[in-house]
Amino acid sequence: MNPEITFDTFGTLSSMNDWHTISPEKAIELLNSDASSGLSDDEVAQRRKYFGKNELKQTAGRSKLSILWDQFTNIMLIMLMAIAIISAILDLRHSNFPKDSIAIFTIVILNGILGYVQESKAEQALAALKRLSSSYVKVVREGVTQQLDAEELVPGDIILLEAGVQIAADGHLLEAQNLQVSESTLTGEATAVTKDADLILGEDAPLGDRLNLIFKGTQVAKGRAKAVVTKTGMETEIGLIATMLQTVETEPTPLQQRMTQLGKVLVGGSLSLVVLVTVAGLIKSGWQIFEEILETSLSMAVAVVPEGLPAVVTVTLAIGTQKMIRRQALIRKLPAVETLGSVTTICSDKTGTLTQNKMIVQQVCTNSFNFEVTGTGYQPTGEFQGENHNLLEKEPEISKLLEACIFCNDALLQCSRKTSQKTAIWSILGDPTEGALLVLAGKAGLFKEDLERNRPRLGEFPFDSERKRMSVIISNSDSDSPYVMFVKGSPELILERSLYIQISGKFQPITKQHRQQILNQNTHLASIGLRVLGLAYKPLAEIPSANTEEENEQELVWLGLLGMLDAPREEVKQAVVNCLHSGIRPVMITGDHPLTAMAIASKLNIANANEQVISGQEIAKMSATELEQAVKQVSVYARVAPEHKLRIVKALQKQGEFVAMTGDGVNDAPALKQADIGIAMGITGTDVSKEASDMVLLDDNFATIVAAIEEGRVVYDNIRRFIKYILGSNIGEVLTIAAAPLLGLSSVPLSPLQILWMNLVTDGLPALALALEPAEPNVMSRPPYDPKESIFARGMGLYMVRIGIIFALLTIVLMVWSYNHDLDSANPNHWKTMVFTTLCLAQMGHALAVRSDTRLTIEMNFFSNPYLLSAIALTTVLQVLLIYVTPLRNFFETSILSFTDLLICLGFSLLVFVWVEMEKLCQRYFFKK
């Protein structure tokens, strides 16, 4: 071993990614280490200078002060602050208390705090990733085995592994004894992988098939091993995921983009109108009334900004999150509620999301019988469907096969009961594949505890990755042979060792035709995506000695084949239909075998059985442009690595798709963060995937995503509904204020404080109630709206301007009449109070009419939204209190109205409701024509 290894060599090792293509001896040689004695302290110190600590590093993010500052750079808040400052100067100049300015500044601060609370939660995905790192590790250094902090590992270190250990770095196996590693954090597949130190693989072997390597953050499920560290820190596979997480840029959601656009339009429109009114006023009356014109401009600017809108949007999204929790979807980031409604493509993992994450035996093939088995989950209820299926389980060769399923098995099938419903709940303790065999036997009325009571296990040859089979020795009821050995494992390898075949309870020599028939059956089952096991047995005269499996696992009697599958969830098929009906395309992205992936996809109608499946190996060879073209057609991706998932999501987004991505493993985190909506699994998901996601499925069910999308569409519809309501009213206010000086009125009809009252209370409360409007009947029978559409799309902008003009015309007529009527009045605020009251009451009628774009109010269930009725009643009462309660009247500068005045205000305000309803009738008439 050369102690003077150079930094150039370190650089080569750091960039090397094909460790799986070399032998253990070659790995030791390249790393300049020693398999028995490890590295010396001097070598460790030298390598640490180059490689640093074995830890995940985090780049600096936004500070909380920066996030707070950003809240006050919003263009609408900047304009409000400017208004507040000018208003304060004018009030102080006339020795008035600046209540308008204080009210405006209060709104600005509250909106800033609201935005800060939403954004200030720091990204915790990397912190969760760090928690996967092992604290301590057994290392051989200078010939001595010692326990060290995992951060001290360097490439070339020799580490020792055993069951239960979390692997602290990437490495190449040197020795492995029955080693099984759970790599679900990286590959997403729950089944532990059997490792083999002596394998040498091709360069294009996907991550999940690199059986001679180990990876940081995974866990040893079984066995022992020795390995040499090849990668540490950010160079490991988990480190690469951390890098991808930190390089994924978070894009604004459609709602955030629309609200930004809305702010720019409102401020631009407001400033244009202010300039127009100011210039017109100066031309008409000169500089002597500049202060009055300035007050008018300030009122207009306050009127155009919907101060209550951010709060209403936030509360609406929060209400949406509560509804989604009831549908088993937990929203982590508020804007995701609305964003869900824009989803055009759902990229879903297979295991546990589309499937039950429970292996189920679906096909049984013996020499005489081929039949299917029905049933779901671990419930031992189902039928054997074949010829004479009512008697199948009684056939000697099938009953013998079921005995093999029970005895050659280390799992347990357990039953508990829900005391409230008296419903049996079945679960598996142990390997899911072995559990599936117990469920199969249970469907025939055979249970492990019953059989083992009289026939205990007397010996065994445990599963071995080289033998790929397991054998157990059981006492036999047959007097000719007191013992029997049952064997299960790889069909090909067990068939090689079988000399006999059982037919109708008797065994006879196996022929060439028998072997070919069995191999054909095996190929067929594998081709439809089933995992296949072979079963055999052998009568014994005595219990064999330990370590004699090679000589005893010979001359077996072949029993049959079992084909099993992680079956689709029953409700997912309908959910996929709903997706397709709603213009949403489901896509499967899995680490599983292509055949298995296509078998599930075709059953769920995600893809046709003859459609193309793209593997991770193929994706790795594609350019970005090629992949962007492929994603248009391909709906199933198999054997994918983390970087492949990220590339698929990016390619779909390049095609204009709005992507929801599901995932549960660490490997999914970058793609979850990149997706427009990242959806983590609540039951099987890692902390990393949850922290990188926007939404967590509490039941890990694809159908829940579709339910959440429906809720998202409802939220978006309601947001458009109350924006239409709020801005239609605001435009009416602005035009009314702008008209006052142009018509020669002596002062502004509305003070900034009164405008704030309308924008926050008479706008805000009904707007919140409109957020609770039930879904339209067609919400899931139409394609998703374009996520890039403007907030003013589909006629909404024209509607707001049109209704705003109607608001203004009606109010201006009332204003001119009441102003002239009050010329001799001693109370100058009387006509202003009538204008103020009319605008507020007109908003109540508008709130009722705006519930639907097409249906008349009388055609709708009047009580389907009781919150709106309550909000209208409460707001009306509050408005009356401002007029008749002395402290409120003084503060808001209103005056008492007579009953006749109130009726006049009510009559004018009802005309807005009538107008909107008449518009619906006209649209219906012209649409029919």
From TrEMBL:
<keyword id="KW-0812">Transmembrane</keyword>
<feature type="transmembrane region" description="Helical">
    <location>
        <begin position="102"/>
        <end position="117"/>
    </location>
</feature>
<dbReference type="InterPro" id="IPR059000">
    <property type="entry name" value="ATPase_P-type_domA"/>
</dbReference>
<protein>
    <submittedName>
        <fullName>Cation-translocating P-type ATPase</fullName>
    </submittedName>
</protein>
<feature type="transmembrane region" description="Helical">
    <location>
        <begin position="298"/>
        <end position="319"/>
    </location>
</feature>
<dbReference type="InterPro" id="IPR036412">
    <property type="entry name" value="HAD-like_sf"/>
</dbReference>
<dbReference type="InterPro" id="IPR050510">
    <property type="entry name" value="Cation_transp_ATPase_P-type"/>
</dbReference>
<dbReference type="GO" id="GO:0016887">
    <property type="term" value="F:ATP hydrolysis activity"/>
</dbReference>
<feature type="transmembrane region" description="Helical">
    <location>
        <begin position="831"/>
        <end position="850"/>
    </location>
</feature>
<keyword id="KW-1278">Translocase</keyword>
<dbReference type="InterPro" id="IPR008250">
    <property type="entry name" value="ATPase_P-typ_transduc_dom_A_sf"/>
</dbReference>
<dbReference type="Pfam" id="PF00689">
    <property type="entry name" value="Cation_ATPase_C"/>
</dbReference>
<feature type="transmembrane region" description="Helical">
    <location>
        <begin position="265"/>
        <end position="283"/>
    </location>
</feature>
<feature type="domain" description="Cation-transporting P-type ATPase N-terminal">
    <location>
        <begin position="18"/>
        <end position="92"/>
    </location>
</feature>
<feature type="transmembrane region" description="Helical">
    <location>
        <begin position="796"/>
        <end position="819"/>
    </location>
</feature>
<feature type="transmembrane region" description="Helical">
    <location>
        <begin position="72"/>
        <end position="90"/>
    </location>
</feature>
<keyword id="KW-0472">Membrane</keyword>
<comment type="similarity">
    <text>Belongs to the cation transport ATPase (P-type) (TC 3.A.3) family. Type IIA subfamily.</text>
</comment>
<dbReference type="InterPro" id="IPR006068">
    <property type="entry name" value="ATPase_P-typ_cation-transptr_C"/>
</dbReference>
<keyword id="KW-0067">ATP-binding</keyword>
<dbReference type="Pfam" id="PF00122">
    <property type="entry name" value="E1-E2_ATPase"/>
</dbReference>
<dbReference type="InterPro" id="IPR023299">
    <property type="entry name" value="ATPase_P-typ_cyto_dom_N"/>
</dbReference>
<dbReference type="InterPro" id="IPR004014">
    <property type="entry name" value="ATPase_P-typ_cation-transptr_N"/>
</dbReference>
<dbReference type="InterPro" id="IPR044492">
    <property type="entry name" value="P_typ_ATPase_HD_dom"/>
</dbReference>
<dbReference type="GO" id="GO:0005886">
    <property type="term" value="C:plasma membrane"/>
</dbReference>
<dbReference type="InterPro" id="IPR023298">
    <property type="entry name" value="ATPase_P-typ_TM_dom_sf"/>
</dbReference>
<feature type="transmembrane region" description="Helical">
    <location>
        <begin position="862"/>
        <end position="884"/>
    </location>
</feature>
<keyword id="KW-1133">Transmembrane helix</keyword>
<dbReference type="InterPro" id="IPR018303">
    <property type="entry name" value="ATPase_P-typ_P_site"/>
</dbReference>
<dbReference type="GO" id="GO:0005524">
    <property type="term" value="F:ATP binding"/>
</dbReference>
<dbReference type="InterPro" id="IPR001757">
    <property type="entry name" value="P_typ_ATPase"/>
</dbReference>
<keyword id="KW-1003">Cell membrane</keyword>
<keyword id="KW-0547">Nucleotide-binding</keyword>
<feature type="transmembrane region" description="Helical">
    <location>
        <begin position="896"/>
        <end position="916"/>
    </location>
</feature>
<dbReference type="Pfam" id="PF13246">
    <property type="entry name" value="Cation_ATPase"/>
</dbReference>
<dbReference type="Pfam" id="PF00690">
    <property type="entry name" value="Cation_ATPase_N"/>
</dbReference>
<dbReference type="InterPro" id="IPR023214">
    <property type="entry name" value="HAD_sf"/>
</dbReference>
